[in-house]
Amino acid sequence: MTTPELALGSPVPAGAPRTTAPAVAPVHPLSEKTLGLHGERLTVPTYDRAGLTPAVVHFSVGGFHRAHQLTYFDDLAQLDISAGWGVVGVGLRHRSMQEALAPQDHLYTVVERSPDGERARVVGVLTDYLFAPDAPGAVLDRLTDPRTRMVTMTITGAGYHLDPHTGAMDLSGPDLQRDLADPARPCTAFGYIVEALDRRRRAGTPPFTVVSCDNMHRNGDATRAAVVGLARQRDEVLARWITDRVGFPSSMVDRITPQTTADERAEVARRYGVDDRWPVITEPFSQWFIEDDFCNGRPPLDAVGVRFVPDVAPYELMKTRLLNAGHSALGYLGTLAGHVRIDELMGEPLFAAYAARFMDDEVTPLLPQPAGVDLTDYKAVLLQRFANPAIADRLERLCRRGSTKVAHHVLPSLRESLDRGSRAPLLTLAVAGWIRYLQLHEPAEDELGPRLQALARAGGTDPRPVLAVRPVFGNLGEHPAFVADLERALRDLTADGVRATVAAALTRPGTVAR
Ligand SMILES: NC(=O)c1ccc[n+]([C@@H]2O[C@H](COP(=O)([O-])OP(=O)(O)OC[C@H]3O[C@@H](n4cnc5c(N)ncnc54)[C@H](O)[C@@H]3O)[C@@H](O)[C@H]2O)c1
Ligand SMILES: O=P(O)(O)OC[C@@H](O)[C@@H](O)[C@H](O)[C@H](O)CO
């Protein structure tokens, strides 16, 4: 079977690691029954899967959730210090993950790849998967079960419908309106959470903790704003109960996880003898920082490397402003340069220098110091992670949902620089790169994309029409020095091409006040 996402995947590009080992024969399908057969080549769960308590419900099981949160819960189950934290996945939009995982008893393979080699494991902590549109009642039953103590989500930054400038949620969209009109058949994660919390409140069941694992500034506060905002439309008493009783810890999550391609799936079968319908390829690096604000018990994730901290903001700012903003900048400029993968791009000294200077000169001076982290080391490792050829991360993944990611990760640094009276030529160039990209390429998974593209094309080398889109840019268009710098960068990109423009921007002195 081929999932739609796998079918869309492109062939493994040149430079990605190839199987050197001879083909493994025979190749066995992955399932509870065949686990014993896979133990020789892969690490497999040795704990009693049937004994896991379904204590966590996760909304939107994509590649990242499977590479990140589920591997931590799997490590926990493996440690045998707590069998209390099994995970049930819920899909909201596509049936494909259910179709892939159900026939293999919700087992799947994670392959960690670095330039030095790779290792693979089968993850067993996902005990069930529900596709919500088929079974809204079953999802609500699971959420209202007193054993459910924690809800996590990776619904993408765009799934929160937040104005990046005011933090307010836009409740006017059709899905949230349907959640309000028919609360027993919700469409969104927030609709499910609000309805389940209401049922728990009425039944006298304690609430669960809600942990966002999306890349957003203060994602716990954003989630609280969304849940309480939606609840308030229904019932002020419910909204108050949620405010008083529910924990919404913010988290910082990090593990670069590309989308699996069909060729990678075949390679996993060849190399490990496991026929997995949807394996995950990721990097060895992984981090998870969570604020210590749990309202219904805290999983002992600190035993497997998770850091519980009083305030996640310094870690999250470090990660989103360096890594995610860097990804966006490199995604657009690298695509304009004709590259397909970020490791290829980082192999060009010009772009490696751009990435380093972007971080050192313009972003780092704005960051708070996260306790226990050496920012110099962090950035050095980050540049190596970007350059990892073994995960073959494609620039098109970094370019999607631009209006959410540029607004959340790039523009805040730019605005802070301008507020300090500084110019930021490399951040400005990232924005110019996005506008030029919109003129030449189709925006993906971006509600505002078509409108921005039309304005970018109409404006040509004048960025003012695009800057007028206030939900993305706020009042940046009213900053004359920034507009002039952006116009020059856009003109240079158009006339001279991306390499000459990057080279010229690198000669301008860093001007951020420290
Ligand atoms: N991939 C990574 O490297 C990575 C790392 C850190 C954090 N994240 C976070 O995880 C999110 C998901 O990444 P992924 O790599 O798993 O992507 P993915 O494409 O593999 O999966 C995304 C999942 O979210 C669902 N989804 C998309 N839009 C939605 C919406 N508006 N509401 C509800 N569900 C929605 C999709 O149906 C899919 O199940 C990212 O947007 C990011 O916030 C990803
Ligand atoms: O997943 P997105 O679309 O929000 O962003 C793309 C990448 O920047 C992101 O997935 C990173 O790989 C990730 O945040 C690394 O931890």
TrEMBL record:
Stretches for region Disordered: 1-24
Biased composition (Low complexity): 11-24
Pfam family membership, one: Mannitol_dh
Reaction it catalyzes: D-mannitol 1-phosphate + NAD(+) = beta-D-fructose 6-phosphate + NADH + H(+)
Boundaries of every Mannitol dehydrogenase C-terminal domain copy: 311-493
The Mannitol dehydrogenase N-terminal domain, residue ranges: 55-302
UniProt-recorded Gene Ontology molecular function terms: mannitol dehydrogenase activity; mannitol-1-phosphate 5-dehydrogenase activity
Gene3D superfamilies, per the entry: N-(1-d-carboxylethyl)-l-norvaline Dehydrogenase, domain 2 (1.10.1040.10), NAD(P)-binding Rossmann-like Domain (3.40.50.720)
Keywords: NAD, Oxidoreductase
EC number assigned by the record: 1.1.1.17
InterPro entries: 6-PGluconate_DH-like_C_sf, 6PGD_dom2, Mannitol_DH, Mannitol_DH/Oxidoreductase, Mannitol_DH_C, Mannitol_DH_CS, Mannitol_DH_N, NAD(P)-bd_dom_sf
Entry's Gene Ontology BP terms: mannitol metabolic process
Domain of life: Bacteria
PANTHER family: MANNITOL DEHYDROGENASE 2-RELATED (PTHR43362:SF1), MANNITOL DEHYDROGENASE DSF1-RELATED (PTHR43362)
Family: Belongs to the mannitol dehydrogenase family.
UniProt name for this protein: Mannitol-1-phosphate 5-dehydrogenase
Organism: Trujillonella endophytica
